[in-house]
């Protein structure tokens, strides 16, 4: 199972390199089911992997000056507050059993994984669905208010389940400020890089980190990113996105079945 887990570490990077995102949503299930790591630790390790992979993508974007730092600031600061709220207040204070009545047992770990599975189902449907022109909402005074509120929401979600949230950030930047997709993706990766670092560091006093394991896992993901980038030059990533969406959909359904019916 561990050998399979290390293989999927490269798959995470491969997916990121091919379609510019999505790979991070695989990391929590891989840590939990293939390496037997508890959900709280898995979400923390996922933040590290997300941060490392985002950094690789961000460095190139910074050099090419594709990042809108002003909008990244408006989105990033509220999202950091959301992450700290999830990691420092919500998660540590969740009871071991969310529900333990009338023969229904829902543990803290089950709750985190089920919430993650719901996110997987949602994001998979967005990947499977054919891209349509995004209706832009430029020029309204409340755009910055909406951006700040979305930043807070993404931070809370990201801190809770350890996923990057790029599928929420990119549409917000495009719809509210008319960014082109390349600039939105580059800005999103930069925001995710900062958020992941904050989320990971804020949890270091809560869990024990197996650094050799985490560094090897992240290193394999980085190798996968470069392989994916090379393949992406010869393949259309848009064609691969729906296929990956179906894989994520099946995994999300399997997690729900596993947690609710096959504990």
How would you sum up this structure, described in words?
- It is found in: Cell membrane; Membrane.
- Keywords: Cell membrane, Membrane, Transmembrane, Transmembrane helix.
- It is a multi-pass membrane protein.
- The protein has helices at 2-19, 27-34, 39-63, 69-93, 108-128, 143-161, 166-177, 181-201, 211-232, 237-261, and strands at residues 97-101, 104-107.
- The chain is mainly alpha-helical and 263 residues long.
- The protein has one domain (1-261).
- Strand 1 (97-101) and strand 2 form a beta hairpin.
- Helix 1 (2-19) packs antiparallel against helix 2, helix 3 (39-63) packs across helix 8 (181-201) and helix 5 packs antiparallel against helix 10.
- It is globular and about 55 Å long.
- The two termini are 18 Å apart.
- The mean pLDDT is 80.
Question: Which features would summarize this protein structure in a list?
Answer:
mainly alpha; cell membrane; Probable membrane transporter protein; TM_pro_TauE-like; 10 helices; 263 residues; 2 strands; transmembrane
- The largest beta-sheet arranges its strands as 1-2
Total tally of structural domains? 1
Helix content: over 70%
Largest sheet: 2 strands, antiparallel
Q: How widely separated are the two ends?
A: 18 Å
Q: Strand tally, please?
A: 2
């Amino acid at each position: 199972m561990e050998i399979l887990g290390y293989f999927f570490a490269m798959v995470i990077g491969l997916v990121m390199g091919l379609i510019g995102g999505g790979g991070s949503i695989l990391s929590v299930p891989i840590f939990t089911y293939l390496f037997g790591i508890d959900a709280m630790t898995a979400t923390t390790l996922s933040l590290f992997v997300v941060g490392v992979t985002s950094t690789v993508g961000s460095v190139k974007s910074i050099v090419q000056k594709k990042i809108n730092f002003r909008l990244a600031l408006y989105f990033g600061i509220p999202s950091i507050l959301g992450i700290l709220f999830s990691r420092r207040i919500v998660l540590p204070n969740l009871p071991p059993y969310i529900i333990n009545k009338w023969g229904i047992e829902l543990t803290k770990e089950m709750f985190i994984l089920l919430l993650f599975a719901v996110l997987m189902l949602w994001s998979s449907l967005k990947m499977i669905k054919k891209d349509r022109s995004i209706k832009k909402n430029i020029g309204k005074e409340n755009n910055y208010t909406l951006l700040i509120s979305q930043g807070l929401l993404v931070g809370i979600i990201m801190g809770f389940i350890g996923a990057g949230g790029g599928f929420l950030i990119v549409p917000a930047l495009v719809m509210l400020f008319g960014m082109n997709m390349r600039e939105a993706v580059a800005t999103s990766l930069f925001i995710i890089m900062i958020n992941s670092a904050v989320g990971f560091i804020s949890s270091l006093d809560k869990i024990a980190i197996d650094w050799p394991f985490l560094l090897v896992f992240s290193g394999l993901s980085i190798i996968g990113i470069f392989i994916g980038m090379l393949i992406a030059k010869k393949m259309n990533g848009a064609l691969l996105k729906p296929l990956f969406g179906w894989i994520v959909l099946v995994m999300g359904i399997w997690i729900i079945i596993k947690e609710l019916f096959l504990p």
